[in-house]
Amino acid sequence: MFETTTQSPVGLLRITEEDGAITRVNWGRGRQDDSPLLRRAVEQLDEYFAGTREAFDLPMHVAGSDFQRAVCDAMSAIPFGYTKTYGEIAKDLGVPAQAVGQACGGNPIPIIVPCHRVMGAKGLTGFSGAGGVETKVALLRHEGAGGFLI
């Protein structure tokens, strides 16, 4: 397992690589390991925050159940600048919206797997990353998807 830390507009991000795949993004400081994949991940996050990248192209492994991976796949399919509701994803997967919400909250690779693009039926909901809903709002505004906040 390797990890590195990078500065971002939403705080320090600790990126973890295992067996050639990104497995986790957390907030906070970690070790400063070096690998080609970690360098690519930092580069792509820098490009995302600079506004020159809208989608990530990194090998990832989402730990957890098949359902967790299905929800992460559904979140990854939401385009930059757009949002979906828990209910819309739930309908697509044939499961209750609450289960989708729990899986979103358990997303081990936030930002890269864009759980910030998932909203409640009545609008903005929480965010499991550091800064909570304020970080979610910052990410949505960065993507130009914050119009619902006005």
Topology overview:
Elements: E1 2-8, E2 11-18, E3 21-27, H1 36-50, H2 66-76, E4 84-85, H3 86-93, H4 97-105, E5 118-119, H5 132-142
Parallel strand pairs: 4-5
Antiparallel strand pairs: 1-2, 2-3
Helix pairs in contact: 3-4
Description:
By secondary structure, this protein is α+β, with helices and mostly antiparallel strands. It has five helices and five strands. The strands form two sheets. Strands 1-2-3 form a three-stranded antiparallel beta sheet, covered by helices on one side. A hairpin with a 2-residue loop joins strand 2 and strand 3. Helix 3 packs across helix 4. The longest helix has 15 residues. It is globular, with a radius of gyration of 15 Å. About 30% of the residues are buried.
What is the compact description of this entry?
This protein is an alpha+beta fold. 36% of the residues lie in helices and 17% in strands. The chain contains 5 helices and 5 strands.
What is the general shape? globular
* Alpha carbon gap, first and last residue: 43 Å
Residue stretches low in confidence (pLDDT < 50, at least 5 long) are none
What is the gyration radius calculated from CA atoms? 15 Å
Coarse structural class: alpha+beta
Which H/E pattern describes the elements? Answer: EEEHHEHHEH
Please indicate the percent range of residues in DSSP E strands (runs of 2 or more).
15-25%
What oligomeric state best describes the polypeptide chains here?
A: single chain
User: Biggest sheet, open or closed, and with what strands and sense?
Assistant: 3 strands, antiparallel
Strand order of the largest sheet: 1-2-3
| Number of separate strands | 5
- Averaging pLDDT over every residue, what do you get? 93
Give the helix level as a range of percent. 25-40%
Number of helices: 5
